[in-house]
Write a structure and sequence with these properties.
The chain is an alpha/beta fold. It folds into 2 domains: about 15-200, Rossmann fold (3-Layer(aba) Sandwich); about 215-325, Homeodomain-like (Arc Repressor Mutant, subunit A), CATH 1.10.10.60. It is built from 15 helices and 11 strands. The protein starts with 12 loop residues before the first strand and ends in an 8-residue tail after the last helix. About 45% of the residues are buried.
């Protein structure tokens, strides 16, 4: 008896992985494994997963592993199929290959869904497939993607984004989350949950979750790293007094000098940074449905759930309860 007992549709979908020299191996194998394991759970070939390149033949990945590929033009795609561009260090050279870019564009016109993992978004952008879209890539490369694709709204925060049939994901393992979301879209939540259990990953990492923590965001904003130690102390002490006076004293500065230097260094006031740290911590705690919102508000320094609600509304545009309803992980699912 198969682990998955539901009755998914009988359409076989093709997910064609486009690669090039220097592609990151995990950007291919992570999502590909999701689709192949879906076949095993369903008990039929619900997905075919050809790996393609412009010419076909062997392609060397960043790990030195050679992958045998088919010629991209020889893979017939239609509206039920997906074109997936893998990321990797060789993507910028691939973007300068006019023949490959044109082949990607032609295949995208045939496919019902186009996507990228990590820096594969650059090849989608080179083919004009991100124009007018909201997209994401690995946070280290978001600024460059925004510069090279000025007609694209690059959001550096989410794990993955879907905008009108164009799917993009953040760095490396986020491609697994994107693939699970595609399987859920195609065959339902039950199969996606079963896949997540078998792969030992969290199925509920939807696109709205952050690529990295507020502490890392602040490090990235800080040119000199002057306040790195303070940020990590703040992260571990959210329930204590984090007013400007207390932060200034810990930094060995006067409140006025601290507030000025901090704002110049990070681009935000100390009060806003504290609020974002607290919201970031509360978001993580809200993923556990067994912890009450009142407890979370107390442990993250908001004091009460109404203050936390106002901060969530201001920074995220949702209430803590709405966030929990979307992102909470059932802790019994993997048991």
């Amino acid at each position: 008896m198969l682990p998955f007992s539901a009755k998914p549709d009988q359409i076989e979908r093709c997910v064609a992985f486009v690669i090039y020299p220097g592609v990151k191996l995990l950007d291919i194998t992570g999502p590909l494994q999701v689709f192949e394991d879906a076949n095993g759970l369903i008990g039929k070939n619900a997905y075919s997963t050809p790996v393609a390149s412009y010419y076909g033949g062997p392609i060397e990945t960043d790990a030195g592993v050679l992958l045998t590929t088919r010629r991209l033009a020889g893979i017939g795609l239609d509206e039920k199929d997906t074109l997936m561009i893998a990321g990797g260090g060789g993507v910028h050279t691939a973007c300068r290959d006019a023949r490959l870019v044109q082949a990607v564009n032609r295949s995208a016109e045939q496919a019902g869904r186009v996507s990228s993992t990590c820096t594969g978004a650059f090849l989608l952008g080179a083919a004009g497939l991100l124009d007018g879209k909201r997209a994401v890539t690995h946070w280290r490369h978001c600024d460059r993607l925004a510069e090279e694709c000025p007609n694209t709204e690059v959001d550096p925060d989410p794990i993955f984004i879907e905008d009108d049939g164009v799917w993009t994901s953040a760095g490396v393992t986020a491609g697994i989350d994107l693939a699970l979301a595609m399987v859920e879209r195609d065959h339902g939540r039950e199969l996606a949950l079963e896949l997540a259990r078998s792969l030992l990953v969290y199925v509920k990492r939807p696109g709205g979750q952050s690529q990295f923590s507020e502490a890392l965001k602040q490090q990235k904003r800080s040119a000199t790293g002057r306040f790195d130690a303070l940020h990590f102390w703040m992260k571990d002490n959210l329930a204590v007094d984090l007013k400007v006076e207390a932060l200034a004293e810990r930094s060995g500065m006067s409140p006025r000098n601290f507030a000025r230097l901090y704002t110049d260094e990070t681009g935000m006031t100390p009060a806003r940074a504290v609020e974002q740290f607290r919201v970031d911590a509360a978001r993580a705690m809200l993923e556990n449905p067994n912890v009450s919102i009142k407890t979370i508000a107390g442990q993250t320094g908001f004091g009460n759930d109404e203050r936390m609600r106002r901060s969530f509304a201001r920074l995220l545009g949702v209430t803590p309860l709405a966030y929990r309803e979307r992102f909470a992980v059932d802790v019994t699912e993997g048991v």
